[in-house]
Write a structure and sequence with these properties.
heterodimer, A: alpha/beta, four-stranded antiparallel sheet, 9 helices, 14 strands, B: 428 residues, mainly alpha, 15 helices, 67% helix, elongated
């Protein structure tokens, strides 16, 4: 079953097309990566999913039915631009935002109890929000997203600005929510986070879908032969190799793409003659690589024609 | 009204009522208001130390002397009365007095008509028997009261004596009973009654303050939601229109509560105070307030508040910080200030065509029509028409504001301009 389905969705602002005939679906219980460079139309897409704006063309279905305002109660949204009422007390703030999501006063109070304990904010409940540290405010922000136990969570850069401890706490909570069967749409620029947690992704650029599917499938489909190298010695040898493209280069390791049908055995001996090879492993192409290629950016590392 | 409107309404109301600034203002509002009225009076007493001279033309040739002595007996300092004998050509004398007044070498002149001492055969008011006071500064209430007091004492004393009564009877009666005052009018101030004037002015002041204060509060609240970026979360939970309605109603109810507290405090103060003010100024402060007036007041407050609150909300949505909004909110603030500034003129001649037109302009109706109702009840159809016009205008304003609001609340990094707003109207 699909929790969210977009069908040829278009959104224009004035004459500018922010979202251009975008279609994708999000499987129930999955973590779905909504990726793309800045200005690709991610926020516009999210705003339509959260009923903040309406599509100009195309249709959106949530929870198996055409989207309507009541779906807002079943959705939790953490915008990239964080925002809370600065002068409201912590508890008042959370309960108010919970009730706006359709919770009863009683349910809101209990949920606030639970999450304040969980995130160790209980002793701060009477403080005003702007008296809290930045880290605590971010925990608060996350609570407003999950308080009403939404079936669909939309998280836009949930880890930005978090210290490693809080980032781990949020990551753990996300995995837990997934284990409970919640669906999560994750929009982020952190490719390593996407690789760790996402099942499926869609990559948008200039308002259009350029890549879509399960992460594994996309990597396999890319047809790229990626080799991770580990070595002792000068990395200059890389320039002597033919039929490869250097993707990443570090002091004692590198990631290279080799052309299809290249003779790997002779490559290994060629490398071995120059440095001591400690690792030669076929790996999946990193998502960052696919992202940059799809978006059509030029690479920072020097390239060798294949 | 959806359930979420009620949640916003309750939240906004509670936040407003719980705020210290609100509680303090609720308590000290009447004191502030009293100060605003007391300061001119204080200034009046301070400036009244310099002597003002009033020329008196006594056509009866009998009243000036008792008036002058009553004036001195009552200790009415600061005003000097000097009799002017007109001779054959009274008009020429008046003309030269007028010139003196305009040249500021005389503060005014007082004309006692010859008929002033005629027998009181009719209960009808006879204008040929009314003395007239012509002043360089017609707003000098204390001067008017002094002249009026001395004149009425003199006139009453003289008439009583003519009729064969003991003139001291008058003083005794005056002490034991309420006074029947004679209406002494300046020409430009034909029908003004001090009591209704004060009431109309107080109500105008309240409406003015309330619309400005609560309208601005709505605007700040919208800007706060926008600048703190919490708006995005809020509108992912509730329709912006519902948010707008809940906010406006919540703050409005808090405003209504505050006004009610003020009305009660002032009502209590008035029942104690009016009689004292009356005795201080020598009578003339009569307050006749029908319960209908309160209903009208609430209705005009409600409509005025709704009109301005929605406008201010729309303006708030176009800004990112409070500093952005100063210029944009100016035209709206003008709409509130104009009726307040014209209020005095309207109260003084409530039925003039200008007053009727001004008081029917929906943005001015709350202050001006209320002022007219309090000074001289206008025809019912005019009152009803003002409500119809306000209701229609409100629907238009709400339509416009909701659209600006819906787009504006999520728009960042764009400077406000009219063409931008027109674009927003097209989006939504």
């Amino acid at each position: 079953m699909h929790i969210a389905e977009l069908n040829h969705v278009t959104k224009r602002y004035d004459k500018q097309v922010a979202v251009d005939r975008v279609s994708f679906s999000v499987r129930a219980g999955s973590i779905f990566g909504l990726l793309g460079p800045n200005g690709a139309g991610k926020t516009s897409t999210i705003r339509m999913l959260t009923s903040i704006t309406l599509p100009d063309e195309g249709t959106i279905a949530l929870f198996g039915e055409p989207i309507r305002a009541e779906h807002q109660n079943r959705t939790g949204y953490m915008p990239e631009e964080r925002g809370l009422y600065r002068k409201l007390g912590v508890r008042v703030q959370l309960e108010y935002l919970g009730k706006l999501k359709g919770m009863t006063s009683d349910a809101a109070r209990k949920a606030v109890d639970y999450w304040l304990d969980r995130f160790e904010l209980r002793s701060w409940e009477k403080k005003k929000t702007n008296e809290l540290s930045k880290g605590m405010q971010q925990k608060l922000q996350f609570i407003t997203t999950v308080l009403h136990d939404p079936e669909l969570l939309i998280l836009d850069e949930p880890l930005s600005g978090l210290d490693p401890i809080n980032a781990e706490l949020i990551n753990q909570t996300i995995s837990e929510l997934k284990a409970q069967g919640k669906t999560i749409i994750l929009s982020t620029h952190r490719m390593e986070q996407v690789e760790q947690v996402c099942d499926d992704i869609v990559l948008v650029n200039k308002g259009r879908v350029v890549l879509e599917g399960s992460l594994r499938e996309i990597k396999r489909r890319s047809g790229k032969n990626m080799i991770a190298l580990g070595f002792e010695g000068n990395a200059e040898f890389l320039r002597t190799l033919s039929d490869i493209r250097i993707v990443e280069e570090h002091p004692n390791s590198a990631l290279i793409e080799v052309a299809a049908g290249a003779d790997l055995r002779s490559m290994i001996s060629q490398i071995n003659s120059q440095v001591e090879l400690v690792k030669f492993e076929r790996v999946e192409p990193p998502l960052k690589e696919l992202f940059l290629e799809a978006v059509g950016q030029s690479f920072a590392t020097p390239t060798v024609t294949l | 009204m959806t359930k979420k409107v009620l949640i916003v309404l309750k939240h906004e109301f509670m936040q407003k009522v719980k705020a210290k600034s609100y509680q303090i203002l609720t308590l000290i509002g009447p004191i502030l208001l009293a100060l605003i009225f007391a300061i001119p009076i204080l200034f009046g007493t301070l400036t009244s130390h310099d002597t003002r001279t009033i020329a008196v033309i006594d056509e009866t040739h009998q009243l000036f002397a008792p008036m002058s002595s009553a004036h001195d007996n009552a200790g009415r300092s600061g005003v000097e009365l000097s009799e002017v004998h007109t001779g054959a050509n009274e008009a020429a004398t008046i003309d030269s007095l007028k010139k003196l007044v305009l040249a500021k070498s005389l503060n005014g002149y007082f004309i006692i008509p010859a008929a002033a001492l005629a027998n009181d055969t009719s209960t009808q008011r006879d204008t040929t028997r009314i003395a007239t006071l012509h002043l360089s500064n017609a707003n000098d209430m204390s001067l008017q009261e002094k002249i009026k007091g001395s004149y009425s004492t003199a006139l009453t004393t003289l008439k009583l004596r003519t009729l064969g009564y003991d003139p001291t009877l008058f003083q005794r009666i005056q002490k034991s009973a309420s006074i029947e005052t004679f209406k002494v009018d300046t020409k430009s101030d034909a029908k003004a009654n001090a009591g209704s004037f004060v009431l109309a002015y107080v109500s105008g002041f309240f409406l003015y303050m309330a619309m400005l204060l609560y309208g601005m509060a709505i605007m700040r609240s919208v800007i706060e939601e926008k600048s703190s970026r919490v708006m995005e979360i809020v509108v992912s939970s509730i329709d912006p229109y519902d948010l707008l309605v809940g906010k406006v109603l919540g703050v409005g109810l808090a405003g209504l509560l505050q006004m009610s507290v003020w009305a009660i405090i002032m009502g209590l103060a008035a029942t104690v105070g009016v009689s004292q003010i009356s005795s201080m100024t020598g009578g003339g402060l009569e307050m006749h307030v029908s319960p209908f007036v309160f209903v009208y007041f609430i209705l005009y407050f409600g409509f005025g508040y709704l009109l301005y609150a929605t406008l201010y909300a729309a303006v708030g949505a176009t800004a990112e910080q409070e500093s952005d909004v100063q210029q944009i909110s100016m035209p709206i603030t003008f709409l509130i200030v104009i009726p307040f500034l014209t209020l005095t003129t309207v109260i003084q001649s409530p039925s003039s065509p200008l007053s009727i037109v001004l008081s029917l302009i929906p943005f001015f109706s709350p202050i001006l029509m209320m002022g007219r109702i309090l000074s001289e009840t206008p025809p019912l159809w005019e009152i009803l028409l003002s409500f119809v016009l306000m209701a229609l205008t409100f629907m238009g304003v709400l339509w416009l504001a909701a659209r600006i609001y819906r787009v504006g609340i999520l728009m960042y990094g764009k400077r406000f301009s009219l063409s931008e707003v027109v674009k927003w109207l097209k989006y939504s």
